[in-house]
Amino acid sequence: MLEIRNLHASIAGKEILRGIDLTIRDGEIHALMGTNGAGKSTLSNVIVGHPAYEVTEGSIRFNGQDLLQMKTDERATAGIFMSFQQPVEIPGVSMQQFMRAAVNARRKAQGKDELKASDFLKMMRERRKLVEIDSRLVNRSVNEGFSGGEKKRNEIFQMAMLEPTFCILDETDSGLDVDALRIVAEGFNKLRTAETSALVITHYQRLLDYIRPDVVHVLLDGRIVKTGGPELAQEIENRGFDWIKSEM
């Protein structure tokens, strides 16, 4: 699904990624762990096409397509979704308006007809229940006045509506209490299929207790320096990252 080779990327002239190699196949969940400033969020932003980041070397292919030649909106309609660390508020734009435009843009890219209003509202009701989001939230402006937990839950609701094939959870556990974390993770797990894949970016083991990764990577100083199974995340929880640095 996603194949990254020798990826180098910079922001404001400063190199952050220094040769990333990563392959994520259909149905796989990969966890990416590392210290602050290691390049985790830079990698996610490069994948989704954030214009502030410049790719200076390397390649990214998504389902056989050259991702670096695609615009940000084309990547989204192709099936890439990112749940942000700090979801933005969009005053004056209701969740219903926002999601209907996004869903129909994705359907158009897939060669499908737009959803009728009645079908869209039915879909919203079903997906809202799936991720346990209050009906009052979806009738308000996007994220306006939402708590941190409500914003993160709303991101999973958007994921449920858009049905992406590749999801990036960029520190979705940040700022969540135990109950909110469980609800968000369970919502994500309910949406998994054999064809969907994910990159879960986190500092901590606790999210990975709910979303079990197939592979765990450690990113330090712009490079993936260690890869292992789920047990690697537990070892990092117990020992931190210093032991990995000492092996470099």
The CATH homologous superfamily is termed P-loop containing nucleotide triphosphate hydrolases
Main sheet characteristics? 6 strands, mixed
Number of helix segments?
Answer: 10
Cα separation of the termini: 29 Å
Q: According to CATH, what is the topology?
A: Rossmann fold
User: Strand content of the residues, in percent?
Assistant: 25-35%
Low-confidence runs: none
The whole-angstrom Rg is 18 Å
For the record, the count of structural domains works out to 1
What level of helicity do the residues show?
Answer: 25-40%
CATH architecture: 3-Layer(aba) Sandwich
Reading side by side through the largest sheet, how are the strands ordered? 6-9-10-3-11-12
Structural class: alpha/beta
Order of helices and strands: EEEHEEHEEHHHEHEHEHEEHH
Q: How many individual β-strands?
A: 12
Mean pLDDT: 88
A few lines on this structure:
The protein is an alpha/beta fold and 248 residues long. The chain has 10 helices and 12 strands.
Give a verbal description of the structure:
This protein has helices at residues 40-48, 72-77, 95-109, 117-130, 135-138, 148-162, 178-191, 206-210, 230-239, 242-247; strands spanning 2-11, 14-24, 29-33, 53-62, 65-66, 80-83, 90-94, 141-142, 166-170, 197-201, 215-220, 223-228. With 248 residues, the chain is of the alpha/beta class. The chain has one domain: 3-Layer(aba) Sandwich (Rossmann fold). The protein is globular, with a radius of gyration of 18 Å.
